[in-house]
Every structure is written in structure tokens, then in C-alpha cells.
Amino acid sequence: MIEPDPPRPGPRSSRATTPVGARRATTISVVPVARQAWLLAQNDLRQELRDLELVLTAGFFTLVVLVMFSLSFAALPASDQTLAIPGMLWLAVAFVGALTLTRIFDREREADTLRAVLTWPVDRVSIYFAKLGVTLLVVTGCGAMLMPALALLFPAAEVFFERPLEAAALLVLGCLAYCAVGTLFAAGLATASGKNVLLSVILYPLTSPALIFALVATRALLEGHPGFTTYLGQLAALDAMLVGLAAWLFEPVLLGSTAASPSRRGRPSPRAERSQR
Length: 277
Fold this sequence. Notes:
Elements lengths: L13 H4 L2 H6 L5 H21 L1 H21 L4 H24 L4 H5 L3 H5 L5 H30 L5 H4 L1 H25 L6 H29 L4 H32 L2 H4 L4 H7 L1
């Protein structure tokens, strides 16, 4: 008697063969990072609203720069104002951004809580997006003060009132390109001695291409150039590239700066002290 062949196992569905962690990888990549970044940014914003240290410093510096520009360039003819206004705007943004970035990690550095933040059950990249969001909010807020003030002081800048949506998009995209690079290097120098000088030395050469691109786009807006939307799209592509690259490099940069901090190394052992004597 011929026995029937044992039944062969049918093909498994992709859901059964896929590990649980792999199925969840796509769901934990975007939404939790955004939620964690929002919670971390809320914490920084609450502390800033209590102290108003960063906002007041950046706002006062913006007013000082604006007064200096008005006293220096008020007598320029309208044709020359078109050439000078983009430099005024983005030079002020660069100065305010550097001032903000030197203080964005001050609370963690002064309280020595940066290593404690790294032990939280959050993705490291969410720390980057939280700090980027706070920095972008402060810098963009100062730029939002500068644009109407320049339009009131200089007739050539009245286009900021005439085309407010395009001017706002230009300001946000330009500040995002600057802050994306600056937040990365602010994290790398968060625990370094003399970090303010080092950040200024590193920041301006690396952010100058983004600032120059934003300056050219601003001049195209002031002159009514038909290719302004093309400049705006290229600036948005540059922002996406810089934010993606900075988010990818943030964790090794932050871990390297934390491991190299003096508080991490601690004091030498008593045997080492005796051998040095």
C-alpha cells in the first residue's frame, strides 16, 4: 500500500516571516522622533519663558544692529539700497544666530546634565531636532523683527510688505540652512573650553555658502527677478540636504564631545598622582 506523501508546508505570508522589530522599524522612525523632539523643545521653551535670557539677549542685539544699520545707510540712494539690504538682513541673522548657538547648550553644560540627557529613553536625533527648533524659532523671530523695520527705514525694502508670503518663506528657509549647520557644531563644542571662540571660528566659514545663497535670493526678491521661485526651490533643497546630513552626524559628534569633556574623564587615580610626584 502506497502511503500518501506528508503535506508540504505552504508558503508563509510576508507578515509571518518578517520579524516584529523589522515590522515596527518603519513606524518608529518618524512619529516618535517628532514627538520626542517636540517634548524636549517644550521643556527648553518653558525654561526660556521663565528666564527670557536668550530671547532678551537676541532681541536687544537685533535692535542694536538695526540702529547701527539705519545710522550708517540711511543716506544711501534707492538704487544702492537694493544692494545693501540683503547684506544687512543676513549679516544680522548671522550675528544673532551665533549669539543664540553659543547659549543653546548652556543649561546642559552648566548643570552637567548632558550625559544624563544621553541616558534618556529617546532617540539621539530627537535632541538635535529639539535644539534646532528652539534655535530656529529665536533666529526667525529676530529676522521677523528685522524685515518690517528695514522696510520702514529703506524704501527699497518695501517689497517685504508687498510680498509677505514670499519674504516669510525666504526668511525661514535661509535661517533653517544656517541653524541646521550651527546646531550640529554647537553640540560638538558643548563641553569644550573656549567654545564661544571656537564656534565662531568654525561657524562662519561653514555657513557662508548658505548665507550667500540666501543673500542672492533676497536680492532677486528685491529686484523682482522672475527666477526668484527657482532660487527659493534651490534653497529648500539645500535645507533638506543640510538637515539630513546634520541629523546623520549628530549622534557621533555629540557622543565624541561628551566623551572628551573633562568631567567625563574625572580626576586621576591616587597611584597616578603619586607617580607624577
